[in-house]
Amino acid sequence: MSLHDQHIAIVDRAADYADFDGLRILVPSEVYHPHEWSSTRFLLDVLPDVRDLDVLEIGGGSGALALAIKRRGARKVVATDLSEKACAAMECNALLNGREIDVRQGDMFGPVREEECFDLVIFNLPLMDKPILNRAEVALCDPDGELLTRFLRGLPEIVRPGGMALFTHASISAPLPSPSAEPLGAPGRISPVAESRRESGEIFRVCSWRHECAHWL
Ligand SMILES: C[S@@+](CC[C@H](N)C(=O)[O-])C[C@H]1O[C@@H](n2cnc3c(N)ncnc32)[C@H](O)[C@@H]1O
Question: How far is the CA of 205 from the centre of ligand 1 (A)?
């Protein structure tokens, strides 16, 4: 069974609970599951010190990462998702775990308010470069890297100078734009933070994008 089929089997099942970084997380069907070998756990392992930071998570899914970030001492955590079901799960998991996060439904940076900026922006992207065939695949597929490109393009407006973004990328994703190409010509740099090769052969990465202060001084 391919990695994608395994993910689909997990995402497309009945509701379930996950234990995640000391949190109890309800995961409804069609919402990305932060299971042991998920990209959620991979991102969690490379999180920087988030104490006193303002953090935005795009595509929060079950809210596992957003809640872990709040639990680790972030000042403010805004978590968005396109999916109504994911936003309901985030609200529910915030209550279940007694943590306050600001959940907003919408597309990419749409729910971010005018002039709102963050120290850290996170997106565990849908990683597979293939058409979306059903609702479960909204959490898994990014045809032609459209989301990836829009995400990178929007970062300079949303990340404070000196701040950073962390996002996932994989060998099954559309390629990253080259460093000299738009949108990376905007102030900031992309570099790999961690990489893991799965048994199935796919390579997963967490990449950082840094908003370089020098450009703004
Ligand atoms: C791989 S899942 C990650 C979920 C969660 N952050 C985690 O790590 O467990 C990707 C998430 O992105 C959301 N998503 C997909 N397209 C989106 C968009 N255009 N705007 C906001 N969220 C989106 C999906 O609904 C899904 O919850």
Answer: 17
Distance in Å, CA 60 to ligand 1 centroid: 6
Q: Is the pLDDT of residue 61 over 50?
A: yes
Is there an atom of ligand 1 within 6 Å of 65 CB? yes
Angle CA 55–60–62, to nearest 5? 130
Each residue's pLDDT tens digit, 81-139: 999 999 999 999 999 999 999 999 999 999 999 999 999 999 999 999 999 998 888 89
Residue showing tokens 């010509």:
185
- Specify the range with the lowest mean pLDDT, choosing from 56-70, 93-107, 153-167, 173-187: 173-187
User: Does the CB atom of residue 82 touch ligand 1 within 6 A?
Assistant: yes
- Take residue 10 and report the two structure tokens written for it: 């997990």
CA 23, CA 66: separation in Å to the nearest integer? 11
Q: What is the span of the domain harbouring residue 56?
A: 3-216
Look at the chain and report how many structural domains it folds into. Answer: 1
